[in-house]
Amino acid sequence: MMTSLVFRILDAHVIHGRADEIAISDERGTTSYAELLHESASIGAGLHHMGIEAGTFVTVDLPPGRDLVVTVLAMARIGAIPADSADFRLVGTPPVLHAPATEVAWDLLVKAGRVEPHPAPADDPDGYEELMRAAFGDILEVLEAGRTIG
User: Fold this and answer.
1) Strand, coil or helix: 103
2) Which Pfam families does UniProt cross-reference here (predicted)?
3) If residue 54 lies in a helix (H) or strand (E), which one and from where to where?
4) Strand runs (DSSP E) across 9-110, as ranges?
5) Are 44 and 11 in contact (CB under 8 A)?
């Protein structure tokens, strides 16, 4: 049985018939739960290709909005840990991944990840959900309740 945070917050909504309901509504338009799942799984895979895996610390310095939501869900898919200071940093609008010895634009992360989007883990390591809720509780609570961010 899948019990991971990201599975319960996103994948389960899609599986249980809410795929076309709106997850995000902002100045850039709307995004359904299915679209959000696909985009966050693609970014998760792109981040993974860049060396970010479960337990890797990532600094997220993004303004509130769509890109932050996708980043949070992508991190949860791969088990990345939010940190104030880390070798991997996501910053700017549109986001850019600053990694050791390189920088990668958001659109390249999406393209790289679409080849094989990252699945949700079956479960999370002990304490992981608490870390994510402490850092991004407002985002997670809205999506968990099946509401719209925006």
Assistant:
1) strand
2) AMP-binding
3) none
4) 22-26, 29-32, 57-61, 81-82, 88-91, 96-99, 102-105
5) no
Single out the residue of 60, 78, 72 nearest to residue 121, CA to CA.
78
What lies within 8 Å, CB to CB, of 122 at 6+ separation is 1, 2, 3, 4, 7
Put residue 16 in one of left, alpha, beta given phi > 0 → left and psi -120 to 50 → alpha: alpha
For the stretch 83-110, pLDDT in tens is 999 999 999 999 999 999 999 999 999 9
Cα distance between residue 141 and residue 119, in whole Å = 21
Which domains does the chain possess? 5-144 (3.40.50)
Query: Tokens representing 131?
Result: 């870390």
> Angle 104-108-112 (CA atoms, 0-180°, nearest 5)?
115
Nearest CA among 38, 32, 31 for reference residue 77 = 38
Which residue has 């390249």 as its token pair? 108
pLDDT score of 11 more than 80: yes
Q: What mean pLDDT do residues 2-26 have?
A: 96
Predicted TM-score of the model (pTM) = 0.96
Whether 69 and 24 have beta carbons less than 8 Å apart is answered as yes
